[in-house]
Amino acid sequence: MNQAVQKRDVFDAIADPTRRRLIHLLSDADELSLHEITPHFPMGRTAVSKHLTILKEASLVHDRRVGRETRYTLNASPLKEVEDWVTFYRKYWSNNMMRLGQLLEEDEE
Amino acid sequence: MSLSLNMDFQFTTSVEKLWNALTDSSKLAKWIADNDFEPVVGHRFQFRHQPNEYWDGIVDSEVLIVDEPNQLSFTWTVGDERHTVTLTIQDMGDGKANLHLEQTGITNEQGLAGAKYGWMAWVDKLVKVLLEQ
């Protein structure tokens, strides 16, 4: 588990479509270098690198130096927060709607 | 960010009765929470849930859309989180009505609106897959 302090909100980090694509790409690979990642995007290394930095700040990406290049891996655990948001409200509304269903049935009687 | 939750519920009732259950304060109290709701655009109100140790139970809201008997929309603010809840009724015939619920989460008002659609599928599929690894 990654214990590093998250400098950036995970929702903020994944709000951008390029960064969501980066997550997809990294989820299909063990580890990728900037050199391998860049051709997948219609932008230059610098722009891709900036997006990776934002993902890193949200602890969604880990990086390590290998010789002259930096290699990136995905760390999916911060996405738990996103899942929690959805799960919380899905349960909340399901429970409420069950009560609404009962209320409407009572009205019929 | 802009995250959205979409759910559908079917009820054996008329559109009018369902609309009434969404817009009558005493009925809302029975299925959401105690409130001072009024079906008037711009009306500010609160849902007061049972408080717990993490949350005082208060949701601050403002009515955005009252389109009788089709659509009701209001803001949903808890702390820093400002969401919008939109309830849309559709007559399914045969004495059935569908209620579509959309809750969008907005912490950054502008700019990210375009990212809204496709969010749910992304969250549902990818996030689940990634976390199961």
What's a quick, concise take on this entry?
Chain A has 109 residues and is an alpha+beta fold.
Q: How would you describe this protein?
A:
Helices cover 57% and strands 13% of the residues of chain A. Chain A is α+β, with helices and mostly antiparallel strands and 109 residues long. Chain A has a single domain (10-108), classed as Arc Repressor Mutant, subunit A (Orthogonal Bundle), CATH 1.10.10.10. A 3-stranded antiparallel β-sheet of chain A has the order 1-3-2. The radius of gyration of chain A is 20 Å and the shape is elongated. Chain B is of the alpha+beta class. Chain B has a single domain (2-132), classed as 2-Layer Sandwich (Alpha-D-Glucose-1,6-Bisphosphate, Chain A, domain 4), CATH 3.30.530.20. Chain B has helices spanning 15-23, 25-31, 119-132, and strands at residues 2-11, 34-35, 44-48, 58-67, 71-78, 81-93, 96-106. In chain B, a hairpin with a 3-residue loop joins β4 and β5. Chain B is globular and about 45 Å long. The two termini of chain B are 25 Å apart. At the A-B interface, α1, α2 and α5 of A face β1, α1, α2, β7 and α3 of B.
